[in-house]
Amino acid sequence: MLYLTADSFPVFVPFGIIGFYRYLWFLIRVAAWWTYRPVPIPENPTYVASEDVTIIVPTIDAGEEFKEAAHSWLVGKPKEILIITEEKMLGPLQDLANQVDPERIRVLTVPFANKRLQMSHGIKNCTTDIIVFADDDAIWPPTLLPYVLACFEDQQVGGVGTSQRVQSVGNRMTVWEVLAAFRLTIRNIEISSSTHIDGGIPCLSGRTAAYRTVILKDPEFLHGFTHDFWLGKYQLNSGDDKFLTRWMVSHGWNTQVQVCKEAELLSTMKPNWRFLKQVLRWTRNTWRSDLRSLFMERYIWTQHPYVAYTMCDKLINPFTLLVGPCLVSYLVYKSTIPVDAGGYHLPWWNIVLSYVVWLSATRTAKLLPHLWNRPQDIIYVPAFILFGYYFAIMKLYALCTLHETGWGTRAGIGDIGAATAAIDAGNEKTANNPYSQPAGAFSNSQNPLSPFRDQVPLSPYRDTPGSTLSYSNRGNANRRTDEEGVELQVGYAR
C-alpha cells in the first residue's frame, strides 16, 4: 500500500500516525509484560490461609461446577468458605456444601438476589484478616492462595488480583470461548505491564480477588458499595470489582497482580452468543467506572498515570479502530475513478487485500502468547478481527446506554431498590455499633470488638475504648491518629 503514496501522500499521514501510535504503545506494553515478575512467596509468611483467609462466594444458581471449584479452593486450606445466596436457594446450596465440606463451608442467605448485597453480607460475617471473593465456577491451582497472600507482606497493598484462563464448558471450545480466551490473554499482558510500570491496574477482576478485611469492614465502604448510583439516579448491581478497585486508589491503598501459572485460575465463559451480552455488561461497567476515575475522582492521574493513559486510550479506541475501514473504503472509492480524473492507479482488490494482510499479521502478533499454547486456535483469528470491529461499535452503543444497569445474562436478579431497602433495614439494627458481628463470631478475649485473631495491635478494630479514630478521604486510609493527634500506622503484622 505504500505505493499509493505516489498518488496522494497526505491521505496516508493519519493512517500512519494512528498505526505508529497504536503499535508503539503495544511494544511498550509487551516489553513491560516480558520484564514483569510476580511477587515470590516469603520463607516465613505473615499470613497463613488456614488462619487468615475467608473465601466469599456470592451466587444464585451454582450447580455441579461449584463442587469442582470448591474442591480446588479447599486445597489451599482457607479457614472458611462463605456461600452467600438468596433464601429460596438455601436448600440446594446447602446440599452442595455438605457434599464438599460441611465443616469449612457455610451457606448464608439474603432476602434478595443482589450481588453487592450478598458480598456485603459476607463481609459482615467474615472473621479473618483477608477476604477472597471468587466466582462459583473459578477453579484455582493449588498454589494460588500462597501467591496471593505473598503480596500482602507489603503493608500498603490493599487488594490483589490474579491471571486467568478460559476453561471449556464442553469437550472443545466454541468460537465464543476462544474469543473470550483471546481477550483474557490480552488482559493478562495489560495488567502485568501496568502493574510493572506504575503499580496500578484498571480492574481487580471479580472472578478472584483478595482484600484486607479492615478496608471492607469500614462502614463508609459498605454504605458506598451498596448505594452506588450512576449519575445519582441509576443504582448499580454489577461492576462491583470496578468499585473495589477505585476504592483502593481513592483511599491510598496499593494493588498488586500475580500473573503466573501458580496463580492462574480457570473460569468458564458463555459458550454461545450470550457471551456478547456479558461483554456488553462489562463494557458499560468499564465506561462508567473509567469516566468516574478520570474526570470525577481523578486520583488515578497522580497515583497511576500509566493506568490513566490506558483508560484514556480505551475511551478513544473505538474511534481510532473504525478510522481504518473508513479510510480503506475511501481509497477503494478513489481507485474506481480514472487516474486522469483524480483517482488512484491501484485496483480496489489490491487495497483490500493489503489491508486484510496487515490486519491478520498484526492481530496474530498480539495473540502469540495464546497461540503458543493453543496453536490450533489460529483459525479463529479472522473471527477475532471481525469481533474487534463489532466490539468497537458495541462500545459506542454501550456509551449511549449507560443508564441500563441490568445484569443481562442471569435471570432472577432481584430488584436493586428492594435489596438496598433490606440493607438499610438491617443497618438500623446496628446503628449504634457499626462493627457489630453475628453472635459467636468473636474469639478475641482482649477486645470483643475485634473480628481478628491476636496480632500486634495495628488494626483500627483493636483500639482501646478511649481512642478516637479519624480517617482522611484519601491518601492516609492506612493511618490513624490518637486523641493527641499522633499518627499511628494501621496495618497487620505478627
TrEMBL record:
Entry-linked CDD domains: GT2_HAS (cd06434)
Keywords, in A-Z order: Glycoprotein, Glycosyltransferase, Membrane, Transferase, Transmembrane, Transmembrane helix
Region named Disordered: 453-494
Pfam families xrefs: Glyco_tranf_2_3
GO CC, any one term: membrane
Annotated compartments: Membrane
Keyword Glycoprotein: yes
Keyword Nuclease: no
Biased composition, class Polar residues, residue ranges: 465-478
Protein name, as recorded: Glycosyltransferase family 2 protein
